[in-house]
Amino acid sequence: MAAKEPEIITDKNQMRQWSRSMRAKGKTIGFVPTMGYLHEGHLSLINEAHKHTQLIVVSVYVNPGQFSPNEDLSTYPSDFYGDIKKLMAVPGGVDVVFHPHNLYDYGNNNCGDDGNGLQKEGMREKDGVVVSCVEDKGLGHETWVRVERLEKGMCGKSRPVFFRGVATVVAKLFNIVEPDVAVFGKKDYQQWRIIRRMVRDLDFAVKVIGSEIVRDSDGLAMSSRNVHLSLEEREQALSINRSLSKAKCAAEKGQVNCRELRNSVIHAIHEAGGKIDYAEIVEQENLESVEEIKSPVVFCIAAWFGKVRLIDNMEISL
Questions:
Q1: From CA 132, how far away is CA 122, in angstroms rounded?
Q2: How far is CA 76 from CA 35, 185, 271, in A?
Q3: In this structure, how many other beta carbons lie within 10 angstroms of the beta carbon of residue 69?
Q4: Which portions of this protein are annotated as coiled-coil regions (predicted)?
Q5: Segment 236-268, tens digit of pLDDT
Q6: What mean pLDDT comes out for the span 132-161?
Q7: What are 147-162's pLDDT values in tens digits?
Q8: What φ, ψ does residue 300 adopt, rounded to 5°?
């Protein structure tokens, strides 16, 4: 059987028209938003989407709204044609790849172009206030979606524009693609919870499904950023999953003091050569920190290995 080649759509109006024409035929649409450079983790989201809908749309778009000027927008890896080949190999295939040029171009964009309608050089903060790459380039976009409490902790502390950028672009994509179901990976646990809360609070007609973390054979959570790890750093990064697994086992054996569990994981990652951004044990639904495990929690980690920031987590339900 020949591989299924997806239709590639770059225009948002054409994308919306496709979805509406398919829905008029009684078809259901599943959606997997990505920033490209696909790996098995992304492909697992597509497999999950196939369980719920008849048609699949995958977006490939590196969203400048979630990067501040001092972050890695310009170095984020991409391989669009490689991505298409991987999508064609997925059982059942993908119907559409939505690959917009710049979702923040409203016809008034005179900026230099890097493939996202943004200049890569000279990015900065404005007047000491952290802004997104979109704002830094004066593209005129000023409407942001905030999930105010859930976005504050963990990744929100060190990346202050990240989650409003994620929520905003996902809201834009939902309005363009108009899917019935959207699938997000639970590796980005805080992001998944934020999107679920946004959908609930703003009455989006989209069912949001969380798909389990996909790991390499050595246990490292799959990430597009893993390509930037040296061999030594990759070996060091295995300390994240190993220490989280030990913490989960300890909790299941009765160690429910969160400070002691956190300290054990922090120590293991430091010993391996990593630098902790955060290590938090929080309630699964509300992401509120807990001192003792009495209900389902998730242990979330962000750590630096060299110049690469990795995130991972492990759910614990006693």
A1: 13
A2: 9, 19, 28
A3: 21
A4: none
A5: 999 999 999 999 999 999 999 999 999 999 999
A6: 93
A7: 999 999 999 999 999 9
A8: -110, 135
Neighbours of 318 (CB within 10 A): 12
Per the annotation, the verdict on 52 as an active-site residue is no
Q: Which residues are registered as beta bridge partners of 183?
A: 209
Mean pLDDT along residues 89-117: 78
Please tell me the number of Cα atoms within 13 Å of 8 on its side-chain side: 13
Instruction: Report the 10 Å Cβ neighbour count for 230.
Output: 12
What is the average pLDDT value for the chain, to the nearest integer? 93
CA distance 309 to 278: 11
Q: Tens of pLDDT along 30-67?
A: 999 999 999 999 999 999 999 999 999 999 999 999 99
Residue 106 structure tokens: 């409203």
Contact 297, 257 (CB under 8 A): no
- Which listed residue (39, 42, 101, 267) is catalytic? 42
Token output for 15: 């994308």
Q: How far is CA 127 from the centre of its chain?
A: 29
Write down the residue that tokens 């999508």 correspond to: 87
Q: Which residues pair with 33 in a beta bridge?
A: 59
